[in-house]
Amino acid sequence: MSRAGPLRVAILGTASSGKSTLAAALAARYNTVWVPEYLREFVDTEARVPAAADQFPIARTQLAREEGAAARANTYLFCDTTPLMTAVYSRHYFLGIDPQLAVLADQHRDHYDLTLVTAPDIPWVPEGLQRECEQVSRIISGLLMEELAARSIPYQMVAGSVDQRVAGVAALLQNLG
Fold this sequence. Notes:
The protein has 177 residues and is an alpha/beta fold.
């Protein structure tokens, strides 16, 4: 990519698939920062799950935090989710993607140097107020694959233990740049 700054790594996947754990582990390995998923903070702060009208502001806030973190990153910036994931959830829970959110997701299609998808191969753990269950996670995973294909976004699936995932991503990063 021609953008200056750290190489951005998008980490996508369903709830309880290890996105945050992987992002934190990669940030520690590469002595850099990672961008936590804003949705978790939103749910905790608002004490409710988001409504359809919240989707675009959530994605926009996620990107704003990503931009802020980029200034502090060393070589890599690990992003626990992107507007595409918000669009996937909107498609499932609200039966469509808000036009502003769709534009945002499309504008950031090439924003990331590497896109990872965390395999749902670790034990599923519920996340408080967030409404996703294991069965819905399987549906979301399918929708994510559809959206990645529809937007022609290349990705790498990461699976296994945290150590296996980190080692696999380290090999991908070595080849990236």
